[in-house]
Amino acid sequence: MVEIRLENLRKTFGEVVATDEVNMVLEEGELSTLLGPSGCGKTTLLRLIAGFYVPDRGKIFFDDKEVTGVPPHKRNTGMCFQNYALWPHMSVTDNVSFGLKLKRVNGMKYTKSAIKRRVMDALDLVHMGDLGNRHIHQLSGGQQQRVALARALVIEPGVLLLDEPLSNLDAKLRLEMREEIMRIQKELSITTVYVTHDQHEALSISDRVAVMDLGYVQQFGTPREIYEMPQTIFVADFIGQCTFVDGVVDSVGETIQARIPNDQIVTGKTTIENYPFEVGERVKCAMRPEDLHLERRGKTDNEITGDVYRTIYVGNAMELYFKVGDVAAQALLGPDTGLRIGDKVTLYAPQSEVMILPVGGVEALRKIPGHPMSTSAPPTRVPANV
Q1: Angle, nearest 10°, between helix axes 141-153 and 92-102?
Q2: What are the phi and psi torsion angles at 62 (to 5°)?
Q3: Among 137, 152, 184, 254, which residue has the least CB neighbours within 10 Å?
């Protein structure tokens, strides 16, 4: 098992900052996900770890060994590409064995019997042991993905790198292969870095998630930390659904009070330790739709009043859309609320579930005393697939 340590990584392509100020430790034996929209820098970061790109600045360590300048074939990583990159003229067995035939251990090649044994073990691991003689065009998309995974694992890598491996599969196959990847990763306890833009996928498979935007890692933590304690507006908005109401800080203490449209006061918590909120500062009051209720559940619950402009029945719940001033908000209520378009509604939100977030992303994080991000040029949107 390998621990991956990234220190102040930066990579640019001309004038474009692809990724910058990346400081993370990816724990050995864990599955860490790089999550974000197209052009956020997640693929660039994966390729830096793989060795396909050399950083402009910073260092990469596998355990205590620096590998920043080490070529890909000497890093002992296995990689699954988005398009699988399988040889169509070869059989399944030949595809999987290809890397083993090239690999050397202390200058020695694997014997034919050793290659055959390892290939069969890898195919059995991905439940493809009886399809070794088939050609790639005879396989389904899910089967091709399993072959690509077996090829990456057969060389017994210290690190497994997966670049949106499920993006070409339909919804049912995605779920099936997601479970397979989780099973194999836990069975082998292999350090894995997984790139995806699918937030549900990231939350369901990951030990830790790095949420990226504009080349920066805005937050790195467990799925629960990311969802319940987002540190920026982008993270709160990208992970799950969130209602944002503009506010201005009215008072700062153990809780934070903010004045929202229609002169209402909302009391909530900060999700960012040591952030220096100031009275008069513009903020966003963020609430998950499931945390808004029709009935008061505690004496200190916030009251939020608005005008209903849309309702959607989704079977076991009702999605309620309402406006607080000019701000659109959303709540997830029981299916039998009886509310209609045009009704005025008062909803209640516990103080512990209202998140007061500063305006801005990386710029807000820079204001936190001791935060690792140092001042640099404003980020530039990265081209897709970078």
Answers
A1: 20
A2: -105, 110
A3: 254
Give the C-alpha separation, 235 to 219, whole Å. 7
Q: Identify the CATH number of the domain defined by range 233-359.
A: 2.40.50.140
Average pLDDT, the chain: 90
Residue 285: which of 217, 233, 363, 362 has the closest Cα? 233
Q: Based on the number of CB atoms within 10 Å of its own CB, is 340 exposed (0-12), middle (13-18) or buried (19 or more)?
A: exposed
Record the tokens describing residue 265, joined without a space: 């006061």
Count the alpha carbons within 13 Å of 45 in the hemisphere toward its beta carbon.
Answer: 35
d(CA 367, CA 371): 8
Non-local (6+) Cβ contacts of 171 within 8 A are none
Q: For residue 198, count CB atoms less than 10 angstroms from its CB and return exposed for 0-12, middle for 13-18, buried for 19 or more.
A: middle
Class of domain 4-228: alpha beta
- As a whole number of angstroms, the distance between CA 358 and CA 52 comes to 37
Residues of the chain with CATH 2.40.50.140: 233-359
Asked if 334 and 370 count as a contact pair (C-beta separation under 8 A), the reply is no
* Residue 77 · residue 158 · CB < 8 Å: yes
- 83, 87, 103, 145, 154 from 148: Cα distances, Å: 9, 10, 17, 5, 10
Predicted confidence (pLDDT) per residue in 47-106, tens digit: 999 999 999 999 999 999 999 999 998 999 999 988 778 888 889 999 898 878 777 665
Rounded distance between C-alpha atoms, residue 140 and residue 131, angstroms: 12
Q: pLDDT, tens digit, for every residue of 211-269?
A: 999 999 999 999 999 999 999 999 999 998 888 989 999 999 999 999 988 788 999 99
Residues in Cβ contact with 324 at an 8 Å cutoff, skipping those fewer than 6 apart: 245, 260, 261, 262, 264, 304, 305, 306
- Cβ(268)–Cβ(356) under 8 Å? yes
- β-strand pairing of 77-80 with 159-163: parallel
Query: Does residue 22 contact residue 6 with C-beta atoms inside 8 Å?
Result: yes
Residues of the chain with CATH 3.40.50.300: 4-228
